[in-house]
Amino acid sequence: MDSNQETLLEILKILQEIRETLDSNPVGVSNNYKIVLYLxxxxxxxFGSGLLxxxxxxxxxxxxxxxxxxxxxxxxxxxxxxxxxxGLLLTFTGIVLSVVFIMVLGNSLAMxxxxxxxxVGLSLLTFYKFQK
Length: 132
Known about the structure:
With 132 residues, this protein is an all-alpha fold. The protein is 79% helix and 0% strand. The protein has four helices and no strands. Helix 3 packs antiparallel against helix 4. It starts with a helix and ends with a helix.
C-alpha cells in the first residue's frame, strides 16, 4: 500500500469513530439541531449587515443626488422630543421586563435585563426635564 491509501484508511477510521460517537446518543435524540442553532445567528448577522449596508448606501446616493440637483432640505432633529419618546419607551419596557423577571425567576441577576433599560429611560426623561 502506498501512503495515499494509508492516509485514506486513517481518514475513514476517524470518520467512522465520529459517526459512532454521534450515533451513540443514549437518549436517541439527534444532535443535528445544534448545527441549525449555530448557523441561524451567523446567517442573520451576515444578511442583516448586508441589508443595512445596502440601505445606508442607497440613502447616501439619494442624498448626493438631491444635493446635486439643489433639492436637498436638511431635516430638523428635535433632541428634546426624541429623548422624551425614547425615555418613555425604555422606562416602561424596563418596568415590564423587571416585573416579568421577578415573577418568573425571583430575585436574581436576570432582573438586570429589565433594570438597565429602566435606568436608561429614567436618565433620558431626566434629560428631557432639565433641557430647555
